[in-house]
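Give me a protein, keeping tokens residue-aligned:
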Amino acid sequence: MNDKIVLITGATGGIGKAVAIALAKQDFTVVIHGRNRQKTEQVCEEIKATTGNDKVDMIVANLFSLQDVRNMANTFKQKYKRLDVLVNNAGGIMGKDRETTPGGIEKTMAINLLAPFLLTELLLDILKNSNDGRIINVSSNSHKLNAKPDFDDLSLEKGYNPLRAYGNAKLFLIWITQHLSQTLKQQGIKSITANTVHPGAVATNFGVESNLGAVLNFIAKLARPLFKTPEQGADTIVYLATSGEVNNISGKYFVNRKQASVTETYYSEKTEKAVWNYCMENTKVFRS
């Protein structure tokens, strides 16, 4: 019997769903997050039928809303007193025109950075109840290809383009994961690890509905046959969730089950701290 509990965001399709199925097959209690209630219910039943595991639960939230993130964490904690694995998988590339959430946050940063940051902060207390708590943040090699941060304008009020915004957010996600890992170590908390992963380019609808502009949409369609399947994309995430080989490894970036290098181009302790402070400031009211 496996009594481990996993929460996976963005789990109604693509990589997230593939991770949910793989972990349900390993007898985890799997809680999938989705944005649409009907679809999330449907996927929940599908995973139960596919795997024969009835311990599949669901939670609905719009992660563009930090209030929804907070409500989601509260709902989860009312039902579960422990969390063993948190997979922050939900994310996406936005359209060619800069958009903000009702709370005034640029949408790429909201979904790819602030939502996982806040959800992790709010669930840390029950991750501490696990003797092997694992936080897995899904990043991207876009952090090497597309990131070009402006530390005076982290939310790209000037110079926005969708790939730059996405690359920046995925780079910042790596940095806050490193920062969290160091903070946990400094606090003497050895039972929780936090790592990031690049799942590879995966043939899902991710970014396909984005209005990137005609040229980028055309390139994305041309490249689709070269992409991994969702199952292949899920592999390293499942590895990080389950393998004894990564016990006590924290603050690292993984590609194809191996530790990989992160771009150093924009990194310093000062820039990492600036991003951490940006996240703390923008989530402050939802953490109190």
